[in-house]
Amino acid sequence: MPSWSAVADIAASARAGDTVARMISFVQAMEEATSTDLVVFRHGVALFNSDFPRSWAHNFLRVEPTGRAPSAEELAAEADRLQGDRGLAHRQIVVRDEGLGGRLEPAFRDRGWLVDRLVYMIHRRPSDRVADTSIVAEVSFDEAKPALEAFVRGSGYGDSDETVRQLVERTLLTARASNVRHFAVVVEGRIASTCQLISGNGTAQIEDVSTFEEFRNRGFARATVQRALDVARADDYDPIFLEADRDDWPRRLYERMGFDPVAHTFSFTRPPDAS
After folding, report:
1. Residues of the chain with pLDDT under 70
2. What is the rounded CA–CA span in Å between residue 75 and residue 130?
3. 136, 33, 37, 125: which is closest to 47 by C-alpha?
4. Side-chain-side CA neighbours of residue 263 (13 Å)
5. pTM above 0.85?
6. For residues 162-174, b (16+ Cβ closer than 10 Å) or e, as one string?
7. Could you tell me the sign of the dihedral formed by the alpha carbons of 68, 73, 74, 78, in that order?
8. Between the CA of residue 129 and those of 38, 149, 227, 240, 254, what are the distances in Å?
9. Strand-pair category, 240-245 with 203-211
10. What's the rounded Cα separation, in Å, for the pair 166 and 178?
């Protein structure tokens, strides 16, 4: 896993061809390309998208190496200042260093913030078994949109129609900055499982893997991920990666499909209802 000091060399390593560095460089470039404003602060950069204020993934503070590692108190104060000035109700801080994130986690939990521990996984090995990708179709955003709206409503984040709209249509932001393709398993005219393939500059990310509960345990998620993976490999993308909850079951599926964990991300979030 990249250390706090090693993260400072990501840009140089990316130019030198390091796979993990290219992955992180791709993620950060996409974050910046889908922002309307970036504000540098003492411990990193705050990214904002004024058109999608309810998308936490487009309005957050990204901690970057600046020498002395910051405390949770310092970062929370910066979030209050920067996100508060924008009229945002939530607070979110992203740390892509396992050591620093682990040290900050207890303090943020004590403050009542939510902690998400995510892992980046790069495809490096053959899958444990062949998936039937004949059941997967490529669909347009408009075709996938009703299912994406239903996934958001069922996630607990879709507290209003406007929030659902923003969390679904933010995909269009990504599509303006890169190539986005949607893959889905359709059962009797209804999308049962779906995922996205985001690609650009030789790198591909599999994102938003979702299956409706009544269609789970039928191999649909594996099939959609495998189809996206096959397409990315056919187009010679390297690396091909995805992000998963470190402690949730999908990570085990991805490991069986040949994805290896290579880097961690911590997200510290104070939702609007905790303000």
Report:
1. 1-17, 275
2. 46
3. 37
4. 24
5. yes
6. ebbebbbbbbebb
7. positive
8. 44, 32, 14, 19, 12
9. parallel
10. 19
